[in-house]
Amino acid sequence: MSLSLTARGFLPSSILSPSPTPKKRTREKRTTDMKDFRELDFEQVLEQLLIPRPTCVLFHVHPDADAIGSAFALAAFLRSVGSPAYCLCADEIPQRLRFLTDGLQDSVLPESLPPSFTDFRVISVDTASPAQMGALYETYGDKVSLMIDHHEMGEPYADHLICPDAAACGEIIFDLLAASGKEVPESCARLLYAAISADTGGFRYSNVTKETHLRAAALVESGIDVAEISHQLFGIKSLAVLRAERLGFEKLRLFEGGKIGIAAISFEDKKFNKLQDEHLSTMVDMVRSVEGVEIAVAIRQPTQERSFRVSMRANIDFDVAAVCATFGGGGHRRAAGATLVAKDTDEAERLVLNAILNSMR
Question: By percentage, how much of the chain surpasses pLDDT 70?
Answer without folding.
Answer: 90
